[in-house]
Specification:
The protein contains nine helices and 19 strands. The protein has 441 residues and is an alpha+beta fold. The chain has two domains: 2-207, PmbA/TldD fold (2-Layer Sandwich); 212-438, no CATH class. The strands form two sheets. Strands 7, 8, 9, 10, 11, 12, 13, 14, 15, 16, 17, 18 and 19 form a 13-stranded mixed beta sheet that branches. Strands 3-2-1-4-5-6 form a six-stranded antiparallel beta sheet, with helices on both faces.
């Protein structure tokens, strides 16, 4: 910890020596412990310590931001010097000053102090055993435990320190070559890390998905399972970043106050929320994080701002900095009133899709995308599941889907894995008129 604090002070000293008018120096430090398991047994446990020193500097109408992983004094000082040279060769720009004032930083208690005592063998074995008892013949996946700390100082006098923990399990169960199921557990606490439920779900889905059939192309009502729904809805949060709006990478420009979804759909971003593994006490400008309603009863309520993007539209920062690009912290979709069983009964011709991967956008501006369902999927006819299906692609647009949501699930779960980069508390969604095409692999 002493060396980390020294690295921040070395960067500040050099920035002041170079007469920078503003600066923010932030040290991100993460200790990651990851175990991987395959063929029903633990394969490897890796421990990785990563440190990143992020430096933001301003002089006049020019600014620069960069980061380095070495915390040695010489490396830090040389990096600040090179960043200063790069800044002086850049073009003038309009941007807001860093926030100043006296702020109180809160912490919601989402941290475990003794992650060194975490038993990887026990937790991975519990997930594997649950999947096997539920019908799987082979289980694979990964278990990640992280301790994250952030320390920040700015030229405007803000000074903060924060620590968090995260527990993530990703498990895939297989019954045969074409039958697999996926389960997730996401938590900030030991006591809430339910690996058995994740393993059990993966095993049950793999057993039910044996001998899948092909389906015809066309429009279907799709029951978006929580993982698939989270994969898509996270992009609504990203599109609400004003940086995305002004760079033409959003389907939400000029939509504030307008209906963009069905009235039952609401989406909120939380700087801190129980169970949200990206919770922070302060953003990259030093402002205390907050809760921001993005979509309220189907209408777009707010964009996400840092100080600079907010100044362009006469708004206040929503404390979502990124010094250059504001971004969501933890998203929450408001719960509906339907069970999965009720959604299935309400579907005449549809597909229940539990998971996906390789989501790609044809246009961020229109929200058009395609994605490949992965793991268990099932044909629904006249309110009943008929048989498993495979070999298809979803090709649609997010704006159309938001306005075609028929039902929202009442059960929600935190979703975060490599296909869902923004943690999101997500229910199942029943969406009409989704286009299905043949998968080309």
């Amino acid at each position: 910890m002493v060396m980390m604090q020294e690295a921040i002070d070395w960067a500040i000293s050099k920035a002041e020596q170079l007469a920078a008018s503003e600066y923010a120096v932030t040290l991100y430090s993460t200790k990651s412990n990851q175990c991987r398991f395959s063929n029903n047994s633990l394969a490897i446990v890796n421990t990785l310590q990563t440190d990143e020193l992020a430096i933001y500097m301003v002089k006049g109408k020019r600014r620069a931001v960069g980061s380095l992983s070495s915390l040695k004094k010489e490396s830090v000082q040389k990096f600040v010097e090179s960043l200063f040279v790069s800044m002086n060769s850049s073009a003038d720009a309009e941007f807001a000053s860093l926030p100043s004032g006296s702020f109180n930083y809160s912490h919601n208690g989402d941290i475990e102090k003794n992650i060194e005592d975490f038993d990887y063998v026990e937790y991975s074995s519990r997930a594997i055993d649950a999947a096997m008892k539920s019908g799987a013949s082979r289980v694979a996946g990964s278990l990640l435990v992280e301790n994250f700390s952030i320390t920040q100082k700015t030229s405007s006098g803000l000074n903060g320190h924060d620590e968090r923990t995260a527990f993530l399990l990703n498990v895939r169960a297989f019954t045969d070559r074409d039958a697999s199921g996926h389960g997730l557990a996401v938590s900030t606490k030991y006591s809430e890390f339910d690996v058995e439920s994740a393993g059990r779900e993966a095993g049950e889905l793999s057993k039910k998905s044996r001998n899948p059939k092909q389906i015809e192309e066309g429009a279907y009502t799709i029951l978006f399972g929580k993982s698939l729904a989270a994969n898509i809805i996270q992009h609504v949060g990203s599109a609400a970043s004003y940086f995305a709006v002004e760079t033409g990478l959003s389907f939400l420009p000029d939509k504030i106050g307008e209906k963009i979804a069905v009235e039952e759909f609401s989406l909120t971003d939380h700087g801190q929320i129980r169970g949200g593994i990206h919770s922070r006490s302060f953003d990259d400008e030093g402002l205390p994080t907050q809760t921001t309603e993005l979509v309220k009863k189907g209408s777009l309520s707010s964009f996400l701002h840092n100080s600079t993007t907010a100044s362009k539209v006469g708004a206040k920062s929503t404390a979502n900095a990124g010094l250059i690009e504001p971004h969501p912290w933890n998203l929450e979709v408001a719960a509906g009133s339907s069970t999965v069983e009720e959604m299935i009964k309400e579907t005449k011709k549809g597909i229940f899709v539990t998971n996906n991967w390789y989501t790609r956008f044809q246009s961020y501006k229109t929200g058009e995308y395609s994605t490949l369902p992965r793991d268990a999927a099932f044909l629904i006819e006249n309110g009943e599941i008929k048989h498993p299906v495979a070999g298809f692609r979803i090709s649609d647009s997010i704006p159309r889907e938001l306005n075609s949501i028929r039902l929202i699930g009442k059960e929600r779960r935190w979703i975060r894995w490599w296909e869902v980069s923004i943690p999101i508390l997500q229910p199942d969604l029943l969406i009409d008129g989704v286009r299905i095409t043949r998968a080309v692999t």
